[in-house]
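User: I'm new to structure prediction. If I give you an amino acid sequence, what do you actually give back? Let's try with this one:
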Amino acid sequence: MDGSERRVVVSHSLSWPGGLAVDTLGERIYWTDEKLRCIGSANLDGGDIELLQMMETTNPFSVTVYNDLLYWSDTRRRTIQRAHKITGKNRKVLLKRPGQPFGLKASIRAPNLNEY
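Assistant: Good question. You get back a string of structure tokens that encode the predicted 3D arrangement of the chain. For your 116 residues, that looks like this:
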């Protein structure tokens, strides 16, 4: 993996793309766009672009995906939020802090194989 076979996946429907997440199960990529105030997604080949516009999202910065949920940081509202990754429904503020949250990652705890 030396970058010699790189290619552009998405080149339109973008203004200020920031955070990037890959949903391997759903076979989509997700990105934040602070200028458009949305979270975008596309198939892994760049097709089927969708923009998820949420009224309460002002400056999405970082994004991650876990199961059916998107999690993102909003630097203007200083929050970590989540919503359904396809519909944007059931949005919930998980954390609000006086300092700006920036980077965000989701991880799962692997089972301890020594217990089996």
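You can read the tokens as a compact description of the fold. Here is one thing that stands out. The chain has one domain: 17-104.
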